[in-house]
Amino acid sequence: MTVSEVLRTQRIELPSWAFGNSGTRFKVFAQAGVPRDPYEKIADAAQVHRYTGVAPSVALHIPWDKVADYPDLAAAAKDDGIELGTINANVFQDDDYRLGSVCNPDPRVQRKALDHLLECVDVMDATGSRDLKLWFADGTNYPGQDSIRARQDRLAEALHAVYERLGGHQRLILEYKLFEPAFYATDVPDWGTAYAHCLRLGERAKVCVDTGHHAPGTNIEFIVSFLLRERKLGAFDFNSRFYADDDLMVGAADPFQLFRILLEVRLGGGFEPDAGIAFMLDQCHNIEPKIPGQIRSVMNVQEATAKALLVDVEALTAVQLAGDVLGANAVVMDAYNTDVRPLLADLRAEQGLAPDPMAAYAASGHAERIVAERIGGTQAGWGA
Ligand code: AOS
Ligand code: ZN
Ligand code: ZN
């Protein structure tokens, strides 16, 4: 596919929780005009799509986005020009989960957690979602606190039960994270653990790479390349980080890393329409306005994608095979150092969009309107 074909067909999914109030363990800063219910979160996500043209779906988090009538929510999304996407389960916010969810030593809590995961598949049936994304806060804080091995057995059993429940077109996407909230041993701490569980489950179980979930210095693009090669890369949770799971805007901390990741996506065929990679954002906008924060993030992914697409792969292969180290590095850096903003502005203009989505949203008056209309926004909850 050509550069512009990929850029035209690229789809970035937004997280509903990015539109609600969020913060750190120290303080949640309330912003005026935030959504008061899932319908308003969807309306906000639709604004991001309206100005970028590449964010036509929004991921839900259950129970944060629990509604009485999911087909009605899906219809509302459709009216707004977007659709409901991935369903994220939540087995971390109840007191019952102090010692874990599906890995908890107490069978009652294991059952409760599994029931929630199965309920999420019911929600997927009602929304028409393809993907169930699972992130487990499970783990232990102290050596000896629980059996690492028994916890893996419990995890495998629960994943198996969920996988069995999926419909033929539905997928289980397993996310890993090095640490937090557990500080000694997390039950799904890395891509290898997620990969091994997915391998046992079957074809429709895939790994989610959250870009904030690794030890500093980890070569994330290597993981991406490996998983793509094995056809086990299911999704990205994009965000950026300076320290740990900071959930800042993607491409803000390290745009070069984002470029390197997207280059491996390209080289591994991940932009092909049948590759089935869900490109999602998983971010919180604690101090910046949320809709513009999402617009900026989408643009950052687009810019890094455009640069990755500009790499002259034929030339790169030739210099690689010739063992020309500096030549190969130059091919990659030439693409990275290209200013792709004019190219993207042209592409938007061709699609009837404003060339600068940030400016267009700011000029629309929408931000002022929601502040005036929405009093008493709820705390949406945010990614741990
Ligand atoms: C948690 O750290 C993860 O990034 C998850 O993706 C989480 O489910 C999401 O952030 C919403 O809580
Ligand atoms: Zn995530
Ligand atoms: Zn996270």
Automatic annotation (TrEMBL):
Q: Which GO terms describe its molecular function?
A: L-rhamnose isomerase activity
Alphabetized UniProt keyword annotations: Isomerase, Manganese, Metal-binding
User: Transmembrane residues, as ranges?
Assistant: none
Where in the sequence is the signal peptide annotated? Answer: none
Q: What class of enzyme is it?
A: isomerase
Q: List each copy of the Xylose isomerase-like TIM barrel domain by range.
A: 69-245
Listed Pfam families: AP_endonuc_2
Return the Gene3D superfamilies for the record: Divalent-metal-dependent TIM barrel enzymes
Q: Which domain of life is it from?
A: Bacteria
**EC number(s) reported in the record:** 5.3.1.14
Q: Which InterPro entries match?
A: L-rhamnose_isomerase, Rhamnose_iso-rel, Xyl_isomerase-like_sf, Xyl_isomerase-like_TIM-brl
Classification via NCBIfam families = RhaI_grampos
Q: PANTHER family in the record, alphabetically?
A: L-RHAMNOSE ISOMERASE (PTHR30268)
Task: Give the protein name, as stated in the record.
Answer: L-rhamnose isomerase
The uppermost taxa in this organism's lineage are: Bacteria, Bacillati, Actinomycetota, Actinomycetes, Streptosporangiales
